[in-house]
Amino acid sequence: MTFPFLAFDSLALEMSRGERVALLAESAAELARLSDLITGQLVPSPGAQRLAGTEIGALPPWRRAIGLVSPRFPLLHRLDLAANLALPLRARSLDRATCAARVNHLLALTRLDSAARRQPRALSAEETFRALLARALAPEPSLLLLETPFDGLEPAARRRADSLLGTLLPALNITTLLLTTEREDALRFGGRIAILADGRVVQIADPATLFDRPAHPRVAVGFGGANALPGQVQDIVDDIARVRLRDGAEAEGIASPGLMPDAPCLLCVRPDRIAPHFGPALFTEDGEHLLAATLQETLHMGDHIRLRFRLADGSDLVVSRPPLQSQRPPRPGARAQLAWPAAQAVAFPMPREL
C-alpha cells in the first residue's frame, strides 16, 4: 500500500498484506492529520492513494475499507455496545441475522461478550479500547489504522491491550498501521517502525537497525536517545569520520552518506555505547580517542545507571551503564575519560535544526 500525500512532503509508505508497521512522530496533531488524510476525512493534495491495489483517493471514508481506532471518534452514547458494532454492518446492507452473528463474533474476539447491552459510558477505559477495536474490525477492512489507541490506558491495561493485538492481528492476517508519539508503544507493536519528521518518513526499518544504523539525526536522537555532539570533520578513512569536537577533543564515528571532510557535522552516540573510565588518566594508542569529562549526576533507573557528564566546552553527555551490586557509583565531581568504538557512533552532516 502506498499513500503519497503532497501535504506531507510526498509521504509514501508501502506495506505488505498482514504486516504491522508503527509510524512514530513527535506531534499528535500531525498524526491526526495524517489519519484524516488516509481515511478520507480530509481531501489530500493530488497524488496516487492505493489500498490493496485499489485507487481510493476519490472514495468517501465509508467506502475505503479502512477500520479506524481513534479516541477522537468515540462510540455513540445513545446506543449500547452491540448496536454500535452493528452500525458499520448495517451500512453494508447486511441482513439482521448476519449482523447479529458478526456482532457476537466480534464481542467474543475482543472479550466483551458480557458487555453487549451496556452503554458506552459504563465501559472502562480498557473495555472502550476493545470496543473501538471491535467496531473497526466489523466491516473486515483491508487496513486497520490505530491512531494513538492507548491514550488513557493505565500501564497494566496497556500491556493487556498489547497482548490482545499480538494475538488478534496475526490470526486475522490484517495489515495494521499504528500511529503513535510513544517510542515504547512502537517497539511493543512488534513490526517495522517508520520515523516521521518534518512531514516525511526519514527511515523505516526494524528496531535493531534504527538503533544501530540510524539514517538521520532525528532517528539517532529522537528514537535512539543518542547524545548529539557538534563538530568538524577532519577526515574520512574507510567510512570512518574523525571529528574535532567543540572542546578541541577528537572522536570517531561511521560517516553517513553525504558527509564531507572539513564540513560541520553532528556526531551521535548512544549512552549505552559509551565506556567511562574513572581514575588515573589513560594513555591512548594510535586511533583511540578519549574525552575528558566531569561527572555531574548519577541516577539509578532500575535496569541501568544514568550518568550525566560535563565536557570541557560546557555541554552535557549522558552515559548509561548496567548496575553492579559490587560497585558503588562515583560521586558528582569525579573526573573521567569517555570512549566508544568508532562503529558505535554515526557522524551526520550538520542539520539545519534537530
UniProtKB/TrEMBL annotation:
<protein>
    <submittedName>
        <fullName>ABC transporter spermidine/putrescine permease</fullName>
    </submittedName>
</protein>
<dbReference type="InterPro" id="IPR050093">
    <property type="entry name" value="ABC_SmlMolc_Importer"/>
</dbReference>
<dbReference type="InterPro" id="IPR003439">
    <property type="entry name" value="ABC_transporter-like_ATP-bd"/>
</dbReference>
<keyword id="KW-0997">Cell inner membrane</keyword>
<keyword id="KW-0472">Membrane</keyword>
<dbReference type="Pfam" id="PF08402">
    <property type="entry name" value="TOBE_2"/>
</dbReference>
<dbReference type="InterPro" id="IPR027417">
    <property type="entry name" value="P-loop_NTPase"/>
</dbReference>
<dbReference type="GO" id="GO:0016887">
    <property type="term" value="F:ATP hydrolysis activity"/>
</dbReference>
<dbReference type="InterPro" id="IPR008995">
    <property type="entry name" value="Mo/tungstate-bd_C_term_dom"/>
</dbReference>
<dbReference type="GO" id="GO:0022857">
    <property type="term" value="F:transmembrane transporter activity"/>
</dbReference>
<dbReference type="GO" id="GO:0005524">
    <property type="term" value="F:ATP binding"/>
</dbReference>
<keyword id="KW-1278">Translocase</keyword>
<keyword id="KW-1003">Cell membrane</keyword>
<keyword id="KW-0813">Transport</keyword>
<dbReference type="InterPro" id="IPR013611">
    <property type="entry name" value="Transp-assoc_OB_typ2"/>
</dbReference>
<dbReference type="GO" id="GO:0043190">
    <property type="term" value="C:ATP-binding cassette (ABC) transporter complex"/>
</dbReference>
<feature type="domain" description="ABC transporter">
    <location>
        <begin position="1"/>
        <end position="223"/>
    </location>
</feature>
<dbReference type="Pfam" id="PF00005">
    <property type="entry name" value="ABC_tran"/>
</dbReference>
